[in-house]
Design brief:
Layout lengths: L4 H16 L16 E13 L7 E10 L2 E7 H7 E7 L4 E5 L1 E6 L15 H16 L2 H17 L2 E8 L2 H11 L2 E8 L10 H15 L6 E7 L7 H14 L3 E5 L3 H11 L3 H7 L7 E5 L5 H9 L3 E4 L1 H6 L7 H7 L2 E4 L12 H16 L7 H8 L1 H6 L17 E5 L11 H7 L6 E6 L2 E5 L2 E2 L4 H22 L2
Parallel strand pairs: 1-4, 1-5, 6-7, 7-8, 8-9, 10-11, 11-12, 12-13
Antiparallel strand pairs: 1-2, 2-3, 5-14, 14-15, 15-16, 16-17
Helix pairs in contact: 4-5, 4-17, 6-7, 13-14, 14-16
């Protein structure tokens, strides 16, 4: 029979689909006469997306976990035969993936969600956010706001986040109790802030926080968070950098975020933000740069050479009209790029699934090329690539034997997942935070089938509403 061009095209499409269909693979087995090994947890899935270097996808598979570590990944039947787990998560209509990594946030700002919208960055910061923080933010505000953020992030499948805010001991206490993983930046800024008088006071108090929390909890990494080059001068930036080197911790900083910042740096120092940081040796230690919207080609090479982790925040960048970061160019050059939400006051949510979609779509439109930033690349930015960008790539970000067990199950039984041809495509372009079913961090269940296990959500909601009512009342009184 003669094949028409339409039939030939259909056959080619079907062949391609079947060629890409993940295959079941060999896994651990138990020899005759041997008993199954006792372990803590088995997480099953119709698919297990490892996000290893090859982005391997296993079908009908499972992940075996013991003492917080992944000890096997393979066919579900083989895992079940080899291990006897204290708890087993069923895998029907479930996709198992690494937990999402939110590389830049201000968690407690969930309590300032919607306080000031539709404003330019510097207007938003100087006339609304900074004054509101001085007036309202204290340790109790940070506790409630961080609990609210952790609730939102866990519900959405985020297992690790990098935070920058005030009262870092309070943030660390919340993270300790809720079970998430976090790099907690003690904010350094040269103005009166909720927990310090100036930059020198911020560095002194931040050093104390870092000393208290270093090696105290394997899930919590205390770091320095100098705010930006327009809120700290060159000497203060150097002093923060030297304190970080002395304590052996990374730095997270807003970098090349806006046209204002770049122009301010040129006017003040005769060079851009990234050039300034390079000139003072700021990149000599581990550095996480948030936003990086306006790097030049030469500066992108500096980021590659200095192994700076860049965190792209598409929602926030769009909302404040900071610009479109050249993410595709940075990735092509070899920059380590992850994703972040920024704070809920400038986003206004902590949904990493939304950040994935927007990151991909922005680059496609910016370059007028639909092939730019495909789904697998964006999903890597939210998992293994994000982990590498924040310095944790050796321990989290992919489902590989020996890594810490930070894992999520995504439900694929809702109508918007019917049918599913490519699971990674669906995760990036279809899934949202409501689809996350279960969350595991360091081998411990934080959410089981959408039930939060480590946060008293009713109490947090009540406290957040009460605090928000006080803030709203004070704002109305002040604006009379």
């Amino acid at each position: 029979m003669k094949k028409t061009p339409g039939i030939v095209a259909l056959i080619a499409v079907l062949a391609a689909l079947f060629a890409c269909t993940p295959q079941e693979d060999a896994g651990p087995t138990v020899a005759a006469g041997q008993s199954a090994k006792q372990i803590d947890l088995i997480v099953n899935g119709d698919y297990v997306i490892t996000m290893d270097d090859a982005a391997t996808v296993h079908t009908g598979a499972a992940v075996a976990i013991d003492q917080g570590v992944i000890i096997a990944v393979g066919p579900a039947a083989e895992i079940a035969a080899s291990y006897d787990a204290s708890e087993v998560l069923a895998g029907q209509d479930r996709i198992v993936t690494p937990g999402l990594v939110n590389g830049h946030s201000h968690a407690a700002m969930t309590l300032l969600r919607g306080v000031a919208d539709d404003l330019a960055l510097m207007d938003w910061l100087t006339n609304y956010i900074f004054p509101a923080e001085v007036e309202f933010v204290d340790a109790e505000f940070v506790r409630i706001g961080t609990e609210l953020a952790c609730w939102e992030m866990i519900r959405g499948g985020t297992t690790t986040f990098v935070d920058m805010y005030y009262y870092p001991d309070t943030i660390a206490d919340v993270v300790d109790k809720c079970g998430m993983r976090a790099l907690i930046s003690t904010t350094v800024i040269d103005q009166r802030s909720p927990d310090a008088e100036n930059a020198a006071d911020s560095i002194r108090k931040g050093s104390g926080f870092i000393e208290r929390w270093q090696d105290r909890n394997s899930r919590i990494s205390p770091i320095f968070g100098p705010h930006a080059n327009y809120t700290l001068d060159a000497d203060q930036l150097r002093a923060t950098h030297e304190a970080a080197l002395a304590l052996g911790v990374p730095i997270s900083i807003h970098m090349s975020e806006s046209a204002f910042e770049v122009q301010y740096s040129k006017d003040t120092y005769g060079m851009t933000s990234i050039e300034l940081f390079e000139s003072i040796g700021f990149f000599d230690g581990p550095t996480i740069g948030a936003h990086v919207v306006w790097p030049t080609e030469a500066e992108i090479q500096i980021l590659v050479d200095r192994r700076v982790g860049v965190i792209h925040n598409p929602s926030s960048n769009m909302k404040i009209a900071s610009g479109i970061a050249p993410v595709a160019d940075m990735l092509a050059a070899g920059v380590r790029v992850g994703l972040g939400t920024d704070g809920a006051a400038s986003n206004n949510d902590l949904d990493m699934w939304e950040e994935m979609r927007l990151a991909s779509f922005l680059q496609k439109v910016e370059q007028m090329n639909p092939e730019v930033l495909p789904a697998v690349t964006v999903f890597r930015m939210a998992t293994s690539g994000g982990a590498t960008a924040i310095g944790l790539g050796e321990s989290i970000g992919s489902l590989e034997v020996g890594k810490r067990a930070d894992i999520i199950q995504v439900a694929f039984d809702d109508v918007h997942h019917v049918p599913t041809y490519d699971v990674i495509s669906h995760l990036v372009y279809v899934s949202d935070e409501q689809d996350v079913a279960s969350v595991v961090v360091d081998g411990k269940l934080l959410m089981r089938e959408k039930e939060l296990l480590t946060i008293d959500t009713a109490r947090v909601a009540e406290e957040a509403r009460a605090l928000a009512a006080r803030i709203q009342s004070a704002l109305k009184e002040r604006n009379r």
